[in-house]
Every structure is written in structure tokens, then in C-alpha cells.
Write a sequence for this structure.
């Protein structure tokens, strides 16, 4: 929409109407804004829908209403299935990967990098960093253990110049 507002687009093409908006009122608002900006609209799966005519807007409204209904119905079914599985006790999240911090710290003291340690312990680098941070919080939160400091292994995403650095 930003590109359309800046006048950089002549046409907006979407695969399905459901990909353009999440509700019927939002769909109508988007189409109205596109019309005022002079930007055309095409739905690839519904090529006959013409938002420039009255009958086309009626058809878009009907198709958009069904898309919104279908989306909400799917959402309700998914939530019902999750609740049913939870009530039976079969719904589980992804298993938590455990990591003992002592071998990881020993490897770090031996001069291995965070990537090498994660590879040796068969965990992802992110899991390795998280478990060390959790271990540092547990150790530092115990009374009488204030002088203990675990090494901080920097995330590659936090370095300047790398995508994601703020």
C-alpha cells in the first residue's frame, strides 16, 4: 500500500482475495483506497471480478464475505482441535532441548567457539546461547554467587553491519 500511495504502482495483483485483506470491511476499504489512488486491482484466481463496476463490487463483496467466513471457520476448527487434544492430554509443544552448561563452559574455556560447541553438543547455536543465558541467570540469582560470571557468546545478528542490527 505504501508504494501505491507514493504513485509507484499501476496495478495490484493478488493470488486470492484472502491474501489482500483479513475481513470484508478491510477488503472494501483497501479496494476503495486503490480506486481513489487510480491503481488497478486483479485477483488471479478470480479474474472476472472487476472492482470498477457496481456489479463487480457486488461480486467482490460476496466473494470477500465467503473468504472471511472460510477463514473464521478454519480458525474455529483449529482452536477446537487444539482444545480437544489438550483435554485428552495429547497436545504437546515441541520438546525442550536440554543442555548441561558445565561441558559447554569447559569447551568454551578450552578455546572453542560458540558454533563449535553447539556442533559438538548437537544443539543449535540459538539453543546453546539460550541455555547458557538461563544458566547465568540461575547461578547469578542464587545467594552468595554474585561473583560468578558466565561468558557471553554474542549473537551474529547483534553485530553492527549485519542485517537485523538496530
Amino acid at each position: 500500500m505504501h508504494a501505491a500511495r507514493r504513485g509507484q504502482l499501476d496495478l495490484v495483483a493478488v493470488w486470492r482475495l484472502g491474501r489482500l485483506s483479513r475481513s470484508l470491511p478491510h477488503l472494501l476499504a483497501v479496494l476503495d483506497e486503490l480506486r481513489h489512488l487510480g491503481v488497478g486491482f486483479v485477483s488471479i484466481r478470480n479474474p472476472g471480478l472487476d472492482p470498477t463496476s457496481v456489479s463487480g463490487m457486488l461480486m467482490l463483496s460476496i466473494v470477500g464475505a465467503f473468504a472471511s467466513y472460510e477463514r473464521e471457520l478454519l480458525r474455529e476448527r483449529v482452536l477446537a482441535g487444539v482444545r480437544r487434544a489438550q483435554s485428552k492430554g495429547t497436545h504437546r509443544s515441541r520438546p525442550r532441548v536440554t543442555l548441561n552448561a558445565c561441558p559447554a563452559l569447559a569447551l568454551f574455556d578450552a578455546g572453542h567457539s560458540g558454533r563449535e560447541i553447539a556442533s559438538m553438543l548437537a544443539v543449535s547455536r540459538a539453543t546453546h546461547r539460550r541455555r547458557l543465558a538461563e544458566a547465568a541467570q540461575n547461578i547469578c540469582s542464587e545467594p552468595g554467587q554474585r561473583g560468578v560470571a558466565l561468558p557471553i557468546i554474542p549473537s551474529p545478528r547483534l553485530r553492527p553491519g549485519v542485517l537485523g542490527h538496530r
User: Anything to note?
Assistant: Residues 101-158 form one domain. The first helix runs from residue 2 to 5. The chain has six helices and two strands. Strands lie at 11-14, 40-43.
